TrEMBL record:
Keywords recorded for this protein, A-Z: Membrane, Transmembrane, Transmembrane helix
Localization in the cell: Membrane
Protein name as annotated: Carotenoid synthesis regulator CarF
Naturally occurring in which organism (per UniProt): Nannocystis punicea
Family indicated by similarity: Belongs to the fatty acid desaturase CarF family.
Membrane topology: Multi-pass membrane protein
Domain Lipid desaturase residue range list: 66-225
Length: 246
């Protein structure tokens, strides 16, 4: 049995509601405020270090942060596709349902505006972002690198759903297509591998760099049963909306 758009439980769709838009807008505002504070602290302390340190520290933090964002995007995508119910209070409609719906209607993400596409990622990033800024003050090279890494990693998480949306857009701008062709961001041809039934591979949706490695090692498939046993009592049994079959 395969799901169709009419099978999606629209009574659990919170997208477009005034309350959800307020959550998205406030989350995004707070996210950028603390990203600014963290970036300011990094800049001020970087300015006091040697130029040689600055030459390698920020590029390394950027690359590692971006790779981590790609892995986390895949892990969260894997969890949302395979574990939990769309009817779990708050978490189901906000985080799980969009992933399940996406297999039924891949273009749905392109019909949401910037706030809807990116607000949830801002919300889930806030505890790590605020915690890093508040509890890990910069006082040396290690803490400076960590702050830069976390800031860039979370900015990659922020961009993930936007890159995912562009990968499904039927007619993206020329500059977006150029970025996709370079492989710096998720491209439509690469992401099409995930949308081939049974939708159980190529979960990473920031750059997709890690997808071939994760597919070859079958890491997520190996984690599925242990995680299901732990998380299903909390998140509920996975429903089929979006083509995920149990």
């Amino acid at each position: 049995m395969s799901a169709t758009p009419d099978d999606i439980p629209h009574d659990y769709d919170m997208s477009g509601s005034l309350w959800m838009r307020l959550v998205d807008a406030s989350s995004m505002s707070v996210f950028f405020f603390f990203e600014y504070l963290l970036a300011r602290d990094v800049y001020l302390h970087l300015d006091a270090t040697s130029s040689g340190l600055a030459t390698w520290l920020l590029p390394l933090a950027l690359v590692l942060g971006y790779i981590t964002a790609d892995f986390v995007s895949g892990f969260v995508h894997f969890l949302a596709d395979n574990i939990g119910s769309t009817r779990t209070p708050f978490f189901g409609p906000v985080f799980i349902r969009p992933f399940r719906e996406h297999h039924v209607d891949p273009l749905a993400i392109t019909r949401h505006d910037f706030l809807e596409v990116n607000g949830a990622n801002c919300l889930i990033s806030l505890p790590v972002l605020i915690g890093t800024w508040y509890f890990v003050p910069i006082h040396g090279t290690a803490s400076l690198f960590f702050a830069a890494y976390i800031g860039l990693f979370l900015f990659g998480i922020f961009l993930t759903n936007q890159f995912h949306s562009w990968a499904h857009h039927p007619n993206p701008s020329a500059w977006i297509r150029r970025l996709q062709r370079t492989g710096l961001i998720l491209g439509p041809e690469h992401h099409a591998r995930h949308h081939t039934p049974p939708f159980n591979t190529y979960y990473c949706i920031t750059s997709g760099w890690l997808n071939p490695i994760l597919a070859r090692t079958r890491l997520f498939e190996r984690l599925k049963e242990p995680l299901r046993r732990v998380l299903e009592p909390i998140a509920g049994k996975a429903d089929e909306v979006g083509g995920v079959q149990e």
